[in-house]
Amino acid sequence: MDELELEFELHPQLAQDCIPLGDFALCRLLLINDANYPWFVLVPRRSGVSEIYHLSSEDQVQLMRESCFLAENLADAFVARKMNVASLGNMVPQLHLHHIVRFEKDPAWPGPVWGKLPARTYTAEQVAGIRKKLQALMSGELDFVPQPA
């Protein structure tokens, strides 16, 4: 573990809005607590990073590997019509990549999801179902955090 990872802290807004699922080699995987859409976030566990180009070359490559792996598995798990992957950071400066599973029948299709509907909080059962789905596909790649009781 290097110094940047030791100093890593999740931005308070991400901590408030998300449910931690686990860690890849580089990134923490979060689930946005909005049941309107399967919406996940990757956050590199590096301190003081707000842009992809702030990462080392090795971390840039690892981020792309993890993002592509996540997007492909989410598309399969949720039978996506389209995967929206974006790094915006206008509200939260900490580098994070959104991975939103989109369907032609989702409430925001084909527009962006931001601000379309008020967030619907996941139930514990819904989160458990998502974790189970991801564990079946990503076991060995993602170290899952324990599920809260």
UniProtKB/TrEMBL annotation:
Spell out the PROSITE patterns in the cross-references: HIT_2 (PS51084)
Task: Check the record and name the InterPro entries matching this protein.
Answer: HIT-like, HIT-like_sf, HIT_Hint
**One Pfam short name:** HIT
An example Gene Ontology molecular-function term: catalytic activity
Residues forming the HIT domain are 41-109
Which SUPFAM superfamilies does the record match to this protein? Answer: HIT-like
The molecule here is called Histidine triad (HIT) protein
Q: Which organism is it from?
A: Marinobacterium aestuarii
